[in-house]
Amino acid sequence: MSNHRFFRPLGLAVVLGMAATGGLVIAQVDNPSQGVASADGSGSYEVSGVAVDVTGKSADQARYAGWRLAQRKGWQILSRRLGGGGALLSDGTLDSMVSGIVVENEQIGPNRYVAKLGVLFSRARAGSILGVAAEATRSQPMLTIPIEISGGAAVGFEQKTAWQEAWLRYRTGNSLIDYIRPTGTGTDPLLLNLGQTERRGRGWWRVVLDQYGATDVLIPTVSLRREWPGGPIVGTFQARHGPDNRLIAQFTLRVDNGDALPVLLDAGVKRIDDAYQSALRNGALMGDSGLSYVAPVATPTPLATPTDLALPGLDGATGAVGATAGSVVTVQVDTPSAASVTATESALQGVPGVRSAITTSLALGGVSVLRVQFDADPAVLHAALEARGWTVVGSGTTLRIRRNATATPGAPAAPADNPAG
User: Fold this and answer.
1) 305, 357 in Cβ contact below 8 A?
2) Cα torsion through 330, 169, 406, 124, rounded to 10
3) Residue 380 CB neighbours (<10 A)
4) Where do runs of H (alpha helix) occur along 33-104?
5) Three-class SS of residue 10?
6) CB neighbour burial string for 310-344, b if at least 16 within 10 angstroms, e if fewer
7) Which of 3, 235, 239, 308 falls between 20 and 30 A from 287, CA-CA?
8) In whole angstroms, what is the distance from residue 93 CA to residue 224 CA?
9) What is the mean pLDDT of the chain?
10) What is the per-residue DSSP string for 254-318?
11) What is the dihedral of CA 89, 94, 95, 97, to 10 degrees?
């Protein structure tokens, strides 16, 4: 089995607690004082609802056999879904493709394992076997600000909420929406709150979006109403978009038990994501022209006075100033590990014209921001990065880059999203 798993053997008490909440993914970084890390966003193929019922000499062996069986069943389902015919592969090959096992529900006995599991397959490896393109067209980077209204109080990132955790738990890799999901640390509580979502000034919005490498904003909102403590919960969900807080879709969901709040919110996230994807296909998520990059007003350059002397800094033939105009570009990139940060800095420093590439905001497992000093117009850097095998989005002095699976032959390799392990 591969070592990349979301779960390890759990005690019975933990398993029972997980079953009571619907089998949620719990192996996430969850420090109350430091926000919550995002779940897998690598774009893995996901097959959910795989049922297994196996026996073994011990509980651990039964569970191990159950995961093995889930891999085989999951691959057959995925293969048929993508037109591959459902042919079986060896366990060794499956181990190299499976990036995670998600426990939706499980029951563990001394010699028996009964569970409903989800299996995550590496998009690049599975796609290469099935002949499916690994890359998909996605939206522009969208800053996501989840707002939870509960007990009369509306909270964004001022404190950790169940709605925020649901969005960070959601695996967005298969979505057409390129979500930027802040973790709630640093300046997030000051910048990303209900007050900001009600502002209309495009100038301040441009400043905020530039901080996160985004070009637009999404505001998923939920209003929770509890019938009584521990009783039914009714959630009214709204998918909103843009600095005008425009309503895209609205729906209501209900659970009968207060302990099932995470299940309610997870279902709400899925339906809101579907609504955003539908709006993107229909052209309803068009960017706001007021959020576009505004170039600074060019100042006329005074003409140099001709002189017969070849002075330092002047061209010997014409006397014109020989300085090169430079620019500072903010580059946002996914950094799943410390090695990817170093590799990205090295790749940027290797681009001709780049004086320096320094990480100014580090987010391992999330999105880091680099400050790049470039000796030419940012559009030249945009073209140079694409020529070296990156997918580049954004304009002006704010760019977002990611590894391009179809890099041109001979171009320097970009750092991989997931380190080999």
Assistant:
1) no
2) 150
3) 15
4) 59-81, 91-97
5) coil
6) eeeebeeeebeeeeeeebebbbbbbbbbeebbebb
7) 235
8) 45
9) 77
10) EESSGGGHHHHHHHHHHHHHHHHHHHHHTTTTPPPGGGS--PPPPPPPPPPPP-SS--TTB-TTT
11) 150
For residue 416, give the DSSP letter. Answer: P
Asked if 15 contacts 104 with a C-beta cutoff of 8 angstroms, the reply is no
Helix (H, G, I), strand (E, B) or coil at 169: helix
Band the pLDDT of 232: cuts 50, 70, 90.
very high
Backbone angles phi, psi at 105, to 5 degrees: -165, 135
* Token pair of 247 as six digits: 């309503």
The Cα–Cα gap between 151 and 159 comes to: 15
d(CA 314, CA 331): 33
* Rounded Cα distance, 354 and 415, in Å: 18
Token pair for 323: 């300085």
Cα distance between residue 179 and residue 207, in whole Å: 18
**Is 312 in contact with 318 (CB distance < 8 Å)?**
no
DSSP 8-class letter at 366: E
pLDDT in tens, 293-338: 655 555 566 655 554 444 444 444 433 333 345 788 888 888 888 8
Check if the beta carbon of residue 287 is closer than 8 Å to that of residue 215.
yes
**Cα 405 vs. chain centroid, distance in angstroms?**
17
Average confidence (pLDDT) over 240-248: 92
DSSP assignments along 317-340, one per residue:
TT--B-----EEEEEEEEESSHHH
Show the tokens assigned to 48. Answer: 């959910």
Whole-number Cα distances in Å, 385 to 138, 293, 334, 389, 395: 19, 19, 15, 7, 13
| E strands in 75-206 | 98-108, 112-121, 141-144, 147-150, 153-155, 178-180
Strands 216-226 and 141-144: parallel
Q: Residue 407 carries which DSSP code? A: P
Measured on CA atoms in the order 280, 273, 143, 331, is the torsion positive or negative? negative
What is the rounded distance in angstroms from the CA atom of residue 322 to the CA atom of residue 324? 7
Radius of gyration of the chain (CA): 25
Asked whether the predicted pLDDT for residue 8 surpasses 50, the reply is no
Q: How far is 180 from 203, CA to CA, in rounded Å?
A: 20
Distance, CA of 337 to chain centre: 14
